[in-house]
Write a structure and sequence with these properties.
The chain is an alpha+beta fold. It is built from five helices and eleven strands, in the order ββαβββββββαββααα.
Length: 260
């Protein structure tokens, strides 16, 4: 077990038992108190998060909602190892520093996606030095609705990246910025949730076009009408967010087709 990981303890058993662990950077999003944590397809309620001891105490539940934490994240590029190249979705990869703060969470009902509750998150700001793959988006592609499309793009890319790398989705994170301090452009960053990284970012940089195509297929083939946690995340209240996400993901392929 990594020293900075948070241990997840099931308190419902005759003797409390460790059922998993999570990196410290991701824990405020998924293991804050009152969160619904998913483990091997089962739901667990987080009763207590002892941040000093790095232990989350959970118990199994069956509820009709999930929790979504609101977190602000700043991305600072420390070194660029590759890129940027040309195109409407230019790729780069390198060393990054992420600073995040989770402030509150919402309870969202399955299927209807209605907000049925919320609460504050009282945890310290987190910093992570790691490696990432980022996509600089042509600003001409990003209008008012496309800002939500950027968030959907980050969500979809993170999930298809985990599938392609055959890693746990929690091994990766993703951030959408309307204007990056480094690129000065709308930017989506997929980063490794491990200090220093383990080599995923370089591979994602190499798979850039395939990942964009796979993410576009994920969103297009999802049966939802306006977006859902399976494709673009909890953006269903933003009209046109799913279509905006698809336009962004397909921008590279459309450019290649037009120039052929």
């Amino acid at each position: 077990m990594a020293a900075d990981n948070v241990v997840i303890v099931d308190t419902s058993r005759p003797r409390p038992e460790v059922i998993g662990e999570m990196d410290q950077f991701s824990a405020p999003v998924f293991l804050h108190e009152q969160a619904i944590y998913l483990h091997e397809g089962a739901q667990y309620h987080v009763d207590q998060l002892d941040w000093e001891a790095k232990k989350a105490y959970v118990r199994p539940v069956e509820v009709d909602h999930y929790t979504d934490a609101l977190m602000s994240t700043r991305v600072e590029v420390l070194d660029t190892f590759g890129g940027p190249d040309s195109g409407p979705l230019a790729r780069s990869h390198g060393e990054v520093k992420l600073t995040s703060l989770a402030t509150m969470f919402k309870k969202i009902r399955f299927h209807t996606h209605e907000n049925i509750g919320s609460g504050p998150i009282h945890l310290p700001e987190q910093t992570l030095h790691t490696t990432g793959w980022w996509i600089s988006v042509d600003p001409g592609l990003v209008g008012d609705v496309e800002e939500a499309g950027l968030q959907g793009m980050a969500h979809a890319l993170r999930h298809v990246a985990a599938l392609r790398l055959m890693c746990d989705p929690h091994d990766l994170g993703a951030v959408a910025e309307v204007r990056s301090t480094h690129t000065r452009l709308p930017t989506v960053t997929v980063f490794e949730a491990y200090p220093g990284g383990v080599g995923y970012a370089r591979r994602l940089f190499e798979l850039h076009d395939q990942l964009l195509a796979a993410a576009a297929d994920l969103v297009a083939e999802c049966p939802c009408a306006a977006g859902c946690p399976s494709c673009i995340g909890p953006l269903h209240l933003v009209p046109g967010a799913k279509d905006a996400c698809l336009r962004l993901l397909r921008a590279q392929a459309l450019t290649y087709s037009a120039s052929a």
